[in-house]
Amino acid sequence: MLYRTAGQFKTSYKADHALFPVRQDAVLLWIIVFLAVVVFPLTASEFTFQALLIPVLIYSLAALGLNILTGYAGQLSLGTAAFMGVGAYATYKLITIFPEMNLLAAILLSGFFSAAVGAAFGLPSLRIKGFYLAIATLAAQFFLVWLFEKWAWLYNYNASGAIQVPNIDFFGIRVAGPTAKSIVQYYFVLGVVALMTALSINLTRGRIGRIWKAVRDMDIAAELVGINLMKAKLLAFAVSSYICGVAGALFVFLWRGAAEPNLFDIPLSFRILFIAIIGGLGSVMGNFLGALLIVALPVVINTIPDALGLDIGAAPLEHINTMIVGGLIIFFLIVEPLGLARLWQIIREKFIIWPFPH
Amino acid sequence: MIKLTRMAAMATVLAVGTAMYSPAAFAQDSIYVPNLSYRTGPFAATGIPLMNGQRDYVMMLNARDGGVGGVKLDYDECETGYSTEKGVECYEKTKDKAVVTQPWSTGITLQVLPKTNVDKIPILAPGYGFSPMADGKIFQWAFNPPAGYWDAASMILEYLSGGDMASLKGKKIAFLHLDHPYGKEPIPLFEAMAKKYGFTFLPIPVGLKEMQNQSAQWLQIRRERPDNVIMWGWGAMNAGAITEAVKTKYPMDKFIGIWWSGSDDDMLTVGEAGKGYKSISWSQPQPDSQAMADIKKYVIDAGNSLVENPDVDTKKVFYQRGIVISMILVEGIKAAQEHFGVKAVNAEQVRWGLENLDMNAETLAALGATGMVPPFKTSCGNHTGHSGAWMLEWDGAKFVPVSDLLQADQSAIEPLIEQKAKEYAEANAPWPVNNDCKE
Q1: Which of A27, A81, B215, B355 lies 20 to 30 Å from B18 when distance is taken between CA atoms?
Q2: Is some CB atom of chain A closer than 8 A to the CB atom of B141?
Q3: Do B79 and A178 touch (CB under 8 A)?
Q4: Would you call B184 an interface residue with chain A, using a CB distance cutoff of 8 Å?
Q5: DSSP letter string over B346-397?
Q6: Interface contact B187, partner A, CB < 8 A
Q7: A179 at B interface, C-beta within 8 A
Q8: SS3 of B278, please?
Q9: Could you tell me which CATH class the domain B27-148+286-387+419-427 is placed in?
Q10: Nearest-CA neighbor of B328 among B33, B14, B17, B9?
């Protein structure tokens, strides 16, 4: 009913290849954009901004970076957090060396450092595959975190070994640092995430995306049809790390405000891998759905007993929370092993043919 | 399909229900004191006794006196699992109603510190956090009474020298620390002291992943043969270091830990073998004090405590330290109530209270807490109080004091505090500074 596609005729190839061939999808997107740009910022409290909206966006972006590498190009990586760290530390150095530099420029530039590091650690992918490659990227994870700890120049010889975000203005508006307003930070993050998402969508459905998918599905066959595997794989590592680097810079500068090296340790990598897997590998939308489940849901569950007036101790609540989220993850993976994005696709198809299933 | 619809309907009902239910208007007859607790995660073993102590003291006041100055204290915990991310989430969640933030980790303190200026909530970080917080002119909203990490470092050196710092000349002191902002805190002071008094200072970092297996570090200690080992450890690192020291037969009486490395539970695993191990501490268990008797009467016997084994656990150093921490907070609230003549004080008033704490011997006696913490006093320029501390020694079954009250060498600490506080303010410019404070 809502999703009836009858009467939507396509008269040109362009219309047939549009991002949303079904009109309702485009409407849905506009509703989401309207929510994100107008409704949420107007209604959100400080807590909602800092614990839900901003982190969900940043985690989605990081998962998107990983998804390009793992979901589209089929190269398993466990080094996501380290590549995020490269982005964060690069932004920090750029901002402290050139204090007058525009923050957006610094964040976008820092992605290139991350991309270079990512491509370097992607070199083993030319010879090894699958779990063996995951171990090679694990080396990046350990090495880079060790470097963040030991190379004091990176954190400007700060005694505590942590980096702290100074107050930064962006065209006269305070965007980073303790005095920045959450709503400003939210719009900044939203802008960058939207830009990166649009780029990734177009990248993955174009020529390069098809090359990556070919490599993912069977690299020997891809090579036989004339795809240069080295170029394809290294490009996937570079693009993926670029996005992760930008996500890492946002993570520290627009959200956390300070970071110690072990923040970028393996638990963060796993968290992002879970988001990508539960959201759906090889999907852009899945990252956002996954981040909602992994990042936002526990926060929401934590506030329920208070809202209902139940008195549960903090520690039991934390345990219950972990159990609920864990249970949901298993539930969703049983219902749809290909992730939340695929689940949504099935629901959508059902809506399209409803009420007359075959 | 029907199933899906039903599920969706249920989800909607739930969502609407939660949204409709707005939390009851916050009654002004209580003071909200949240605690960012960590009863879960890798540091839970040290967190639980501290949180229990903090909680039981507040429960006791509520049961015995009906709160503070006639206002109930609404003690609440927000679980962080010692994770910085969750800590910031908890801070955001509690800050609207809270009169204080108790961040409980150096990482969370560092994150929250710049925000408190904007949100106008005092941070209370007793004996931890960022040492330069002592400079109240720059860190107007942060408090780390009764003593900071640099005080501890100075007092440990003083104890080792037996009062004559010149005797440290030519000695070699190893510094086994967690490779984390917390563990690195005292290094600037140790380095300055090493230069001044001519001893060799040897930092040995323990990574977060190596906490439980420190064989490499202890191999280095065996090779270097330091005269003393000073430890800045936390959580699993303490037990790891102590077992390793026992295994490598390092003389225990040469081994001194910070106050967070002096938990009874870490020592009980080695028992007799740990005899002689020392820990500097600004708190001391006083199981026979009036405060403890009241807690037993009003909280533990009434069945309102979370302590599992009251006869043993309430005598431990960390539990009683938790009590002292709540005591400091409550005294700050009391001072604010008296000064402003308001019962339900707000965060700004509590800030004033914490800045004007006077925990002298009479106050402590009136609280029934003589000897639990040394007397100290804070002021607008001094947010730490520099109470001094005792050296406690493990006698095989419990910690016993083996020194008189030690005092830190403030002439070495003050310039460092001033310098580091200034650096922090400059790095975070524009940073508001309290220029009215003439001290």
Answers
A1: A27
A2: no
A3: no
A4: yes
A5: -HHHHHHHHHT-EE-HHHHHHHT-TTTS--EE--SSBSS----BEEEEE-SS
A6: yes
A7: yes
A8: strand
A9: alpha beta
A10: B33
pLDDT tens, A125-172? 888 888 888 888 999 999 999 999 889 898 888 777 788 888 888 888
CATH architecture classification, B150-285+389-417? 3-Layer(aba) Sandwich (3.40)
Distances (CA, A) of A148 to A86, A182, B186: 9, 28, 20
First to last CA, chain A: 16
Q: Is B123 on the interface with A (CB under 8 A)?
A: no
Q: Which of A159, A262, A313 sits opposite B180 (nearest CB)?
A: A262
Q: Give ranges for CATH 3.40.50.2300 in chain B.
A: 27-148+286-387+419-427, 150-285+389-417
Residues of chain B with C-beta less than 8 angstroms from the C-beta of A265: 208
Spatial separation of the C-alpha atoms in residues B53 and B313, rounded to whole Å: 10
Q: Distance between CA A194 and CA A197 in Å, rounded? A: 5
Q: What is the pLDDT of residues B148-191, one digit of tens each?
A: 899 999 999 999 988 888 899 999 999 999 888 888 889 989 99
C-alpha span between A352 and B388 (Å, rounded)? 74
Provide the token pair at A62. Answer: 């990081």
CA dihedral A149, A150, A156, A162 (to 10 degrees): 20
Interface mutation target, options A179, A181, A294, chain B, most CBs of B under 10 Å: A179
Which chain A positions have a beta carbon within 8 Å of B117's beta carbon? 178-179
List, for residues B246-269, the tens digit of each pLDDT value: 888 899 989 999 999 988 888 888
In tens, the pLDDT along A221-277 reads 999 999 998 999 999 999 999 999 999 999 999 998 888 888 898 989 999 999 999
* A43 part of contact set with chain B, CB < 8 Å: no
* Mutation target among B86, B93, B104 for the A interface, most CBs of A within 10 A: B93
Which of A162, A315, A350 comes nearest B79 by C-beta?
Answer: A315
- Residue B416 touches partner A, C-beta closer than 8 Å: no
Q: Which amino acid is at B188?
A: P
Domains of chain A: 45-353 (1.10.3470)
Q: From chain A, pick out residues whose CB is under 8 angstroms from the CB of B430.
A: 167, 179
User: Whose structure tokens read 């879970």?
Assistant: A274
